[in-house]
Design goal:
about 0% strand, Arp2/3 complex 21 kDa subunit ARPC3, 7 helices, globular, about 230 residues, mainly alpha
Length: about 230
């Protein structure tokens, strides 16, 4: 008797580009939805697309995180951004500084402890990198004296990026496992993949509470920086 292959199962070679394309689309939509949020100091905006990028990095590795970041930032520059190539570069640097170190650390330790440690690494790396890049680039395209920017590093840029990273780390903890589970059900991630860091199908209440606490804390701090609270 002839066996009939399951036509619903995508070959492994087709899964990755399909999933990466879908993550790019989701990241772009997330960016669009949050664009109306007010800017801090008129120049710093919160953007949760980093969550989608780091999830892609956790699943497929740091190079995929770079690819998603570049694609989404480029399309953003062509469609809705008013900051041109400078904004594109700053977007890519900020996102990659968060997602790439996180993906590298998680690749070596695919566990919940590894996920938390990787996100902490990503937040710190992104905050440090953006202090340097804002010091170098902001005076060039904002017309602000470098001394002014230097004074804003410890009071505006560093706190904002730490808060932004904290929110995105919390959202990643909340969303990563459900996203991986959904991708498996859609046959976009292999069932044997260790992308979820183990504990398949189990809900870690502690991680949910930690993620929620980080998000709430970060949102409150952003509101303080905006002068709302």
């Amino acid at each position: 008797m002839d066996s009939h292959p399951n036509t619903n199962v995508r070959p492994a070679s087709a899964r990755r580009p399909v999933t990466v394309g879908m993550l790019c689309a989701v990241a772009y939509v997330v960016m669009l939805v949050t664009r109306p949020l007010p800017d801090v100091q008129g120049i710093l905006s919160y953007d949760p697309k980093d969550v989608v990028v780091v999830i892609g990095g956790f699943i497929f590795g740091p190079l995929t995180a770079v690819a998603i970041s570049v694609i989404v930032s480029f399309v953003e520059m062509l469609t809705v951004s008013s900051t041109g190539p400078v904004g594109f570069v700053m977007n890519v640097v900020s996102t990659c500084a968060f997602a790439v170190p996180a993906a590298l650390v998680y690749k070596k330790s695919r566990s919940m402890k590894g996920a938390i440690g990787s996100l902490v690494t990503g937040v710190l790396a992104m905050a440090a990198a953006m202090c340097l890049w804002n010091y170098v680039v902001t005076p060039l395209y904002q017309g602000v004296p470098r001394q002014v920017v230097a004074g804003m590093l410890p009071t505006v840029f560093l706190p904002f990026n730490l808060i932004k990273g904290t929110i995105n780390a919390g959202l990643t903890l909340l969303l990563y496992k459900p996203v991986v589970t959904a991708l498996r059900k859609a046959n976009l991630v292999e069932e044997s993949s260790s992308a979820d860091g183990g504990g398949k199908g189990r809900v870690n209440v502690g991680v949910i509470l930690l993620g929620a606490a980080l998000v709430v804390t970060g949102v409150l701090l952003i509101l303080v920086m905006l002068g709302v609270l």
